[in-house]
Amino acid sequence: MVRRHLLLRSFMLTGLAIAVLGVRGVRASSPPVGFDDTTFRKWDDDDKPKRRKRRRSSEKDEKKAEKIRWGQRNNESDEKYDKRFSKLMKRTKQDPKDDIHGGVITDGNKRIRMWTYKGPLFIVRTDIDKEFTVNTAMYMEKLHREYGEAYQKLLGIPVQMHEKVEVIVFSDRATYMRNGGTPGSGGFFHPIAVPANGDRSPQWPAQRFRLCQFTSGVRKFEKWEKGTLKHEAAHMELQMRCGYALL
What we know:
6 strands; globular
């Protein structure tokens, strides 16, 4: 009876030891962790698992991770896109103080000097900043490519953009309304009945077509909801091909 009791006790202690060792591990050069001869001991510094220091990501890493290439072409590398983006940044200028070829745009109190990029298809202008303007230009070119492919498959009509389109994005609705915005709208695209509507000089490169909208105070391109821009760009593509606007 005593022997059975000792065997049972030995079995239980062995099971407990295995459980403890399984959880805490065994050091190759020392007794099992948790035991020192017959005395249970606390963790030593050497026994404690090392806490891995979390590398603090730099602002450069975070900015790189967040970068979205809005107008990237199919099979275009990041390097080529960034080079193209840099070229557009250099070509985007704020309107000169005394230059009114692009019209006199005001906020109700003073004239606004727009950031303007003059591209092969679009004259893109915003009152926000240079980077927002370039992102808008790249994105418009992407929409034109994608809608162009889709409409050509549906309608069998090739791209017909013989005239440039002026694309304007204001930062707020009030400025949008003061400069041609239509009541109750989030944006518009339409052909201009009178060339430049009388508010652009005869030398202005986009005389007949204008797309305009606002961002409701959003000044970061990645945070701006672009549904209205896509909608108006769809109107533009149909107008360029079929001679009518989809209402």
